[in-house]
Design a protein that fits this description.
Number of strands: 5
Largest sheet: 5 strands, antiparallel
Order of helices and strands: EEHEEE
Radius of gyration: 11 Å
Strand content: 35-45%
Helix content: 10-25%
Oligomer: single chain
Structural class: alpha+beta
Number of helices: 1
Distance between the termini: 24 Å
Shape: globular
Length: about 70
């Protein structure tokens, strides 16, 4: 599980990676981080407590927690 800050550090997203299990965990996380910073988009962004899906070039991650700083 990783917590990411995107959108000028105003939105924090914690997600579990659902990419291929044969990849090593830390490498998978690096791929997801790189994609999130470069070209990953958030499909159907929701409010806190709801689930959304992050789709990246290296796999798909399911968001389990999302909140915006006030």
């Amino acid at each position: 599980m990783i917590t990411l800050a995107i959108g000028a550090k105003s939105t924090y997203i914690r997600f579990q990676s659902l990419v291929h299990t044969r990849q090593k965990k830390h490498l998978t996380h690096l791929y997801l981080l790189r994609n999130l910073m470069n070209r990953t988009t958030i499909k159907n962004p929701t409010t806190a407590g709801k689930k959304t899906t992050i789709v990246g070039g290296q796999g798909i991650a399911q968001v389990i927690h999302m909140r915006r700083l006030s």
